[in-house]
Automatic annotation (TrEMBL):
The keyword Lipid biosynthesis does not apply. Belongs to the ABC transporter superfamily. Macrolide exporter (TC 3.A.1.122) family. PROSITE patterns: ABC_TRANSPORTER_1, ABC_TRANSPORTER_2. It comes from the Bacteria. One of its GO terms (molecular function) is ATP hydrolysis activity. It comes from Pelomicrobium methylotrophicum. Coiled coil: none annotated. This is ABC transporter ATP-binding protein. Pfam families: ABC_tran (PF00005). The keyword Hydrolase does not apply. PANTHER family: ABC TRANSPORTER ABCH.1, IMPORT ATP-BINDING PROTEIN. Keywords: ATP-binding, Nucleotide-binding, Transport.
Length: 231
């Protein structure tokens, strides 16, 4: 039996106050089991990015509950949320977010620096992560020396170097061509299948969402549909 990893219950999020207040989420209920691959879709302004930010502990609900396993995330303080991000979560973004003047290896090592891992262990784990995404031998290249697809592979290596349980991917193929997008999605899918990493991915592209096991559709701050994929 699969173990429940994430549960959102009645989550709301309002920005601003009074007449300037904007409600991004209006009572979102969502459960995700460990090892699932879930895509979150919705039009601009639907609230899908807000859901991602809350799952990633980058934002907190205005009301409602977020459980990561048995941990009530909304009760954590800022430092405790940062610790949860550091130890359990990995992030992949549309814009890669690599440091321009550092090598691929140094970019991948960055989360391990925050964890104060010894240098030898950082190097070894970063090399293993780069090899896992097909970039063995590219350790000394800077982002400017890499294609867009290679840069996203470095970003994925950085996201998995800490061996997270949850990978959050925000439009991971948004800056890539069709062939490269397919390669990146095959990589993310293989990490989910072979390593058991739970994946939650925001996308507006139906062909990208088709890689997931489930698609959650959000509209006007609410879950409109939650359906299994036929893939």
């Amino acid at each position: 039996m699969s173990r429940r990893l994430i549960r959102l219950e009645g989550v709301t999020k309002t920005y601003g106050r009074g007449g300037a207040a904007f409600t991004a989420l209006r009572g979102v209920d969502l459960t995700i089991d460990e090892g699932e691959f879930v895509a979150v879709m919705g039009p601009s302004g639907s609230g899908k990015s807000t859901v991602m930010n809350i799952l990633g502990c980058l934002d907190v609900p205005s009301s409602g509950h977020y459980w990561f396993e048995d941990l009530a995330v909304e009760r954590l303080n800022r430092d405790q949320r940062a610790l949860l991000r550091r130890n359990q979560l990995g992030f992949v973004f549309q814009g890669f977010n690599l440091l321009a003047r550092t090598t691929a290896l140094e970019n991948v090592e960055l989360p391990l620096l925050y964890r104060r891992e010894p240098a030898a262990r950082r190097h070894r784990l970063a090399q293993e992560a780069l090899a896992a995404v097909g970039l063995a031998g590219w350790e000394d290249h800077t982002p400017a020396e890499l294609s867009g697809g290679q840069q996203q592979r470095v970003a994925i290596a950085r996201a998995i170097v800490t061996r997270p349980r949850l990978l959050l991917a925000d439009e991971p193929t948004g800056n890539l061509d069709t062939q490269t997008s397919h390669e990146i999605m095959e990589l993310i899918s293989s990490l989910n299948r072979e390593r058991g990493i739970t994946v939650v991915m925001v996308t507006h592209e139906h062909d990208i969402a088709a890689w997931a096991q489930r698609v959650v559709h959000i509209r006007d701050g609410r879950v409109e549909r939650d359906e299994a994929n036929g893939r």
